[in-house]
Design goal:
- By secondary structure, this protein is mainly beta.
- Helix content is about 5%, strand content about 35%.
Length: about 1000
């Protein structure tokens, strides 16, 4: 034995003897959880040591006498080897306790620093990470539904901690009583990445970063500051769905946060309540390359760059906005703002001092595009070198300036734009721009511009309408032409499709036809819907149907979900989003460039025709081969000549091996690819995040669903077999994708752009059964007409059959509950129809609704009743009153005023032989209702952040319900509407 080996053995023996090498695994189940957590206050017992593994298995629910927290007070690694762990602690509502154990929570405290948690699901359970550091949650799901928990703190709560990471997690809140979902309070250098935070129904703020609300539990050793600093939110989706309150917000407070590459849907982005805000540029936030579909506030001294905003953009003092696209108005009510290089469809208003508005394109339908409304002698606002267009004014004339100290000059006409070729375009001298009277530096936006190459019309990468030159091969395509039907030919892309994550997703074709990812980082790193761990490249995708609600990268099959039903559960449905609609960086770099996936499934499909039906002069269609040491399948174009390269065992579905044809990279490039040949590498398949058969078998998706739910069509090949092209695979299987674009015929029409939804419709707060009340309102379409359909289940229609341009109402609804409104844009003659919106508008339906449409005559006093639609409201004493109140002068505050000056209150009575099962009153505010003795069966809920306030009765079904009968005095905020739910 050598000296080095002897020393190594000695080190290993000493390590084992001291226990430093030992790591124990403790299985945690329902029947032993109180043994593992057996220390003081349900902390980890003595049997668990620092560095041990806790393997949670199955459902663990603690309630009743056993209700308590699970407190992690040692650095441990928490997993679920069975992938089925669900923790239910049944967190209760009410004013919460703070500090290390708020009660009925999963807690990681200071002594638990260094803990990791992976793959655990928490249901109706608060997660409390308090006064700790270096904690990582990976692939954790927190699901709160129909339970009020965590008032005042939120249910995913990270307090007074640093270097805490949420990676690929999901936080979901539905009807949680108006609490916030995810809060970071007094936190430093924490990261939330690739995480989805979603709210539905009555929920509060979804992501609250930097809030100093409830600072009472700040640890004594924590330091002087109480706001969060230097946190990062990247690659996340923060969204509301269904009937979630529109007041749900993504709130930012504290100093130096970075928000990058996120999708923030239907949520205002604003300052966090009561928190420190930046006082200088070095304290400001960076908000970069996000998609925000609601109002957006650029907080003091912060920088917003490259964001896409649909809604109002508000800039606070010292803020900078550069390179953003804004569909909505821009407001600058504070001083020292810089606004450069942005695209705005709306007006820009600067009402303070020292705003710099430069190099923007601003198009407004109002009298002016830019309003400088300050009259101060030292306003000193600057508007220069912008392209401006208002209703009837352009350039400098499109600026309204109220102070002589402002500078307005050198602004151009936004009607004009420059059409020119990018530098370095091949054969630039062969391109022409028409009409002939227009020049490349001054054509009008309302003029049709035609680009031609050698006299041929260029339309989104395909060619048409001329015999003057041979077709021009689209960007990213190989030169070979392949027939996929009797009348249609296609080009193949230069490689398999790949998706790369580096703070955000980008899409490209593989550099070489033989490239595939296999077991490398990317395919094996997928850890959630649309997320991966770290950076990496994915080229095996699930098949996602139109019925699936997934958005972002997940809708293209980047998900480790194993249940095929979650990828769409409808037989015969279309792809939710064909991969070809993406902007592919080396394939035109434009969405809807013309790429698509071939059809499959029967003898008439395109994959079948390609392999089995088409004829070629050489008679060669395909062959098994190894190219540059990579096994796969070679496809030969329609005009292939056997003289180009000699291949063995062609058109043989049962070729004995990939070694029948061994082709070097140089021969492939010069003799096969140069003549249009396509190579499909055997990239294997993915199951969750596990890759199988890479380098042995090839699995390629078609665009066609199976006739059975949860499956789709693909074709499969391996060494010695080629099973054909009518195969079914479950949709959760990750397969390769090879895209094509069509070769235009000489009479091909120009491609039409898709019509769009300019403003999505919004759902009614509530509607009554059988009424003519509109279910939605406010929808606006561009280049077409909005069409609607209503379903009683949340299942997307598989076609546009049955849609109507009439705004749907409740008149044909016969039962209370919820309905779902779907919509799309039926295009005009110059556009194509839009897709059906992926998410329905959810509208609650009650049996009877009292609101401004039907009860403004309500007046109840001194025992007199009021009856409407079979429901009677009666006062039970002389000094008990109710009436429709309009005294505020503000119609939004009108409603039913309930006033009580002696006992006995009110009674609701159902006169038609039915019973009340639920009564829900929505209020204009909390005043009075939050402290009143409402009576048996009644409860109050409200959130000052969301401004949603409700009083709800749910008790044993009865034909009479009393309200405020034990209150001797009461005066509360007006009631906007009352919804009555009935049973026979």
């Amino acid at each position: 034995m050598t000296k080095n080996k002897l020393l190594l053995l000695l080190v290993l023996l000493l390590t084992a003897a001291t226990g430093a090498w030992a790591q124990s695994t403790h299985v945690v189940k329902q029947d032993n959880v109180n043994t593992i957590f057996s220390g003081d206050g349900y902390t980890l017992g003595d049997a668990v040591k620092a560095g041990d593994v806790l393997d949670f298995q199955g459902e663990i629910e603690l309630e009743g006498d056993a209700s308590h927290s699970l407190i992690i007070n040692k650095p441990v690694n928490i997993i679920s080897s069975t992938e089925d762990a669900v923790v239910k602690l049944n967190t209760a509502n009410g004013q919460p306790a703070y500090k290390e154990d708020p009660g009925k929570a999963f807690v990681i405290n200071k002594a638990g620093a260094g803990t990791t948690v992976e793959g655990i699901r928490f249901e109706n359970t608060r997660i409390w990470i308090y006064n700790t550091s270096n904690v990582t949650l990976t692939g954790v799901t927190q699901h709160v539904e129909d339970k009020s928990i965590s008032s005042g703190t939120g249910h995913m709560c990270i307090r007074w901690s640093d270097h805490v990471t949420l990676d690929g997690c999901t936080v979901y809140a539905k009807n949680n009583g108006g609490s916030s979902a995810c809060l970071l309070i007094g936190c430093n250098n924490c990261t939330i990445k690739d995480t989805r935070i979603e709210g539905e129904g009555n929920v509060g703020n979804l992501l609250y970063l930097g809030n100093i609300f409830q600072p009472d539990d700040k640890p004594a050793d924590f330091g002087d500051y109480i706001h969060s600093t230097d946190c990062t939110v990247t690659g996340c989706t923060v969204t509301k769905s269904g009937s979630a309150s529109p007041m749900c917000i993504f709130a930012i407070g504290g100093l130096r946060h970075r928000i990058e590459g996120c999708t923030i849907e239907n949520l205002s982005v604003s300052s966090a309540y009561g928190t420190a805000t930046p006082a200088s540029a070095d304290e400001g936030h960076t908000i970069l390359n996000n998609t925000i579909t609601a109002n957006f506030t650029v907080i003091k001294y912060s920088t917003a760059t490259g964001n896409t905003v649909t809604g109002t953009m508000t800039l606070q003092q010292g803020a900078t906005a550069t390179g953003n696209s804004v569909t909505g108005n821009v407001s600058m009510s504070q001083a020292d703002i810089t606004f450069t290089g942005n695209q705005v469809q709306g007006k820009v208003t600067a009402s303070n001092k020292n705003a710099t508005i430069q190099g923007n394109t601003i198009i407004s339908t109002e009298e002016y595009a830019v309003y400088l409304s300050s009259t101060a002698a030292d306003a000193n606002n600057t508007v220069t070198n912008n392209d401006l267009k208002a209703a009837a004014k352009t350039g400098d004339e499109a600026v309204s300036s109220k102070s002589t100290s402002n500078t307005v000059k050198d602004n151009g006409d936004a009607n004009k734009y420059t059409v020119k070729l990018k530098e370095g375009v091949q054969d630039a001298d062969k391109w022409t721009i028409a009409p002939a009277e227009a020049t490349t530096d001054g054509v009008y936006r309302n003029t049709k511009v035609t680009l031609k190459y050698n006299g041929r019309l260029k339309v989104k990468g395909v060619t048409a309408t001329s015999d003057a030159a041979a077709p021009s091969v689209p960007d990213g395509a190989l030169s070979g032409v392949f027939s996929v039907s009797d009348t249609k030919q296609v080009y193949f892309s230069k490689g398999n499709l790949q998706a790369t994550y580096n703070t955000s997703w980008s899409w490209a074709f593989a550099t070489n036809q033989w490239d595939y990812i296999g077991n490398a980082a990317g395919n094996t790193s997928i850890n959630g819907g649309g997320t991966i761990s770290g950076t990496g490249t994915v080229d095996l995708f699930g098949w996602v149907g139109a019925a699936c609600a997934w958005t972002g990268a997940a809708q293209y099959g980047i998900s480790n979900v194993m249940q095929a039903a979650q990828y769409g559960n409808v037989a015969g449905e279309a792809l939710k989003s064909d991969w070809g609609t993406l902007a592919i960086t080396n394939g035109g770099n434009t969405a809807n460039f013309g790429w698509r996936t071939l059809t499959g499934g029967d003898d008439s499909s395109e994959w079948e025709y390609l392999f089995k039906t088409r004829t070629t002069p050489s008679g060669v269609r395909y062959a098994h081969a190894t190219v540059n040491d990579v096994p796969g399948l070679v496809l030969l174009p329609d005009d292939w000549s056997a003289d180009y390269y000699s291949l063995n065992n062609v058109n043989d579905a049962y070729s004995t091996a990939y070694t029948d044809n061994v082709i070097s990279s140089s021969d492939w490039t010069s003799k096969l690819e140069a003549h249009g040949a396509v190579f499909l590498p055997a990239g294997g398949n993915r199951n969750g995040a596990t890759v199988n058969d890479a380098g042995d078998k090839g699995n390629y998706w078609s665009s066609t669903s199976s006739t059975s739910a949860q499956s789709a069509r693909y074709f499969y090949f391996g060494s010695g077999r080629f099973t054909g092209l009518t195969q079914n695979s479950t949709r959760n299987r990750g397969c390769s994708v090879r895209l094509v674009c069509e070769v235009a015929t000489t009479d091909a029409p120009a491609a039409k752009p898709a019509a769009t939804v300019t403003t999505a419709p919004t759902g009614a707060a509530i509607v009554g059964v059988g009424k003519t009340t509109a279910l939605v309102s406010g929808g606006v379409a561009d280049d077409g007409t909005l069409m609607y359909a209503v379903t009683t289940t949340n299942t997307m229609p598989t076609s546009t059959a049955g849609f109507s341009d009439a705004v749907p109402t409740a008149k044909d609804i016969t039962a209370s509950g919820k309905v779902y409104v779907w919509y799309y844009v039926k295009a005009d003659d110059t556009h194509t129809d839009s897709e059906i919106a992926a998410t329905a508008i959810e509208v609650p339906v009650a049996d009877i609704v009292w609101d401004i449409t039907n009860v403004t005559d309500l007046n109840v006093f001194e025992g007199d009743p009021y009856e409407k639609e079979g429901v009677t409201l009666r006062s039970n004493a002389e000094n008990v009153f109710a009436w429709w109140d309009t005294t505020s002068g503000n119609q939004t505050l009108d409603g039913i005023s309930f006033q009580v000056d002696e006992y006995d209150g009110f009674t609701f009575t159902e006169q038609t032989g039915k019973n009340f099962t639920k009564i829900e009153m929505t209020l204009n505010g909390s005043e009075g209702w939050d402290i009143a003795d409402l009576g048996s069966g009644w409860s109050y809920s409200g959130d000052s952040m969301t401004e949603i306030y409700k009083v709800t009765w749910t008790d044993s079904a009865d034909s009479t319900v009393d309200l405020l009968t034990d209150a001797d005095t009461f005066g509360g905020a007006n009631v906007k509407y009352i919804a009555f739910y009935l049973s026979e």
